[in-house]
Each structure stands twice: as C-alpha cells, then as structure tokens.
Amino acid sequence: MLRHQVSLCAARHECSPSRLHSAAQARRVIEQDRKSGFSAGGNIVNRFWLQQYPDGVPADVDVHQYSSLIELFEESFATFGDRKAAICMDRAITYGELDEMSAAIGAYLQSRGLARGARVAVMMPNVLQNPVVLTAGLRAGYTIVNVNPLYTPRELEHQLKDSGAEAIVILENFATTLEKVLPRTRSRVDLPRKNPDNSLHWSVASAIAG
Predict the structure, then answer these.
(1) Residue 131: CB atoms within 10 Å
(2) Mapped to the 3 state alphabet, what secondary structure does 74-91 carry?
C-alpha cells in the first residue's frame, strides 16, 4: 500500500519514487497531500473549491442524467437555442447555430465514407470552429482526436499514426505542417479548390468563419 501511495505522491510532486529516500520522507509527502485536500489514495477529502461556487451551482453532478453526450447536446440545443454557446474575441455563436453547423459538418464527414467510430483528428486552437467540429464529430458517431496546433511535423505524424486517425479537420494556418507528413499517414484531406481527387477537408474551418 505504501508503494502505491508513494507513486501517487511522486507523480503529483514531479519526482520518482526512487528519489523518496525513506519511508519517513514518503509519509511527509503523503501528509502534505492530505493537508492540501488529497487522501493518500488520491481521493478528495476536502473539496475546498466548492466555497467559490456561485449560488445555485450544485456541488455534485448526476452522471446518470443523460445516456450520452449527444443527449446532453440535443437538450441544450432545444432549450438554449438563442443563447450564446461560445465566444471568441468579438465573435459568438448561439446554441442554435452550433446545432445547425455541427449537423451540417457531421453530415459532410459521413458523406465522405467514414465508418462509425472512425477517429477524426481536430487540429486547431481555441477558436469558434473548434467546438463546432468537435460537436459535429461526436454527433456523427466518430472518435475525436485532439491535436496540438503547434505540433512539429514529427509530433503530428506520431499522433496521427498512434491514434489511427483516418481524417483530420485543420485550421488552414497549420496546413503546411500537415502537408509534410500526410503521405506517411492514414489521414485524408480534401482540397476541393486545388485537388478534388483527395478525401477529407481542411477548408471546413474557414467555411464556418463566414
């Protein structure tokens, strides 16, 4: 049990168990975690952040309320259609717009022949296109693979191969990185204005910005 506790504490304090030279030192680390709100087993014993919750925000969430994320999405679209779903700089989209755009992009992905459960990479920063594509992929039945838009070609190639991504939706600014590795991956890109014979699509994001 002590070895398990030491491993958990070592991970949180960014040191390996080998650097905890004695059981006494290990116990001191565990005690420090207890004081900061963690038990030795990694469970929360003092949820101090609840003091910052506004009135009306529940401390716990019923994880059985929805059968899936899709059900949560659909309810939100129907209930909050006119409200803002996401804001980026001086632009915003409503839940109604998120519903419409994600349904259109999801249908497009399905039209490209991607089977249910296929892995779709999303390589873009925190812009309004991101939640639209993310929601589209989930609604269409795909597995989303988030990709850091600042990846080097070597890092991108590794993640695409490791995840088995069959398609990628990418912000045009980062397309040069993708071009360097695409021939060595399973991912497919559609460039309708340049090469209509290819498959998936990186101008989806530009189309949303409108």
Answers:
(1) 17
(2) HHHHHHCCCCEEEEECCE
Residues with Cβ < 8 Å from 70, sequence gap 6 or more? 138, 139
15 and 113, same domain (yes or no): no
Shared-domain flag, residues 90 and 45: no
Question: By the 8 A CB rule, do 167 and 195 touch?
Answer: no
Query: Using alpha carbons only, what angle is made at residue 34 by residues 30 and 39, rounded to the nearest 5 degrees?
Result: 85
Instruction: Please give the model's pTM, rounded to 2 decimal places.
Output: 0.66
Which contiguous run of DSSP H or E holds residue 10? helix 2-12
90 and 158 inside one domain: yes
Q: Mind listing the pLDDT tens digit for each residue in 86-109?
A: 999 889 999 999 999 999 999 999
What domain range includes position 22?
2-50
Distance (Å, rounded) from C-alpha 90 to C-alpha 109?
Answer: 29
40 vs 138, more confident? 138
**What CATH number is associated with residue 148?**
3.40.50.980
